[in-house]
# Entry
Amino acid sequence: NGGPGQGIGVVTKTAPKTKRPSLYKVLLLNDDYTPQEFVVWLLQAVFKKDAEDAVRIMMHVHQSGIGVCGVYTYEIAETKVAQVMELSRRNQHPLQCTMERE
Ligand code: TYC
# Structure
């Protein structure tokens, strides 16, 4: 009613906190049996790399043992890992793929 200490308030508005999702690296592991061409094909098919990038990533994994093929939110990273494992299994390659929080 407008009396002292009555009826009138101050409207405060808190900005909603936007939380950025955690990101996950999808890692490819080297092995002695998976053909280089299969890895290059996979990097293009699953990770949408161009031919040049795909060869570069494959060679890095081949020479160093492990490498990052991309960084994604949890569900997307999980899906990529599953796709790599399924394609490798279907083609009878021992290729391993995993994910790790950045
Ligand atoms: N080392 C494999 C070969 O010489 C090629 C390869 C590269 C395999 C990358 C796996 O993640 C990998 N045929």
User: Anything to note?
Assistant: The helical segments are 36-45, 51-64, 74-90. Strands lie at 23-29, 66-73, 96-101.
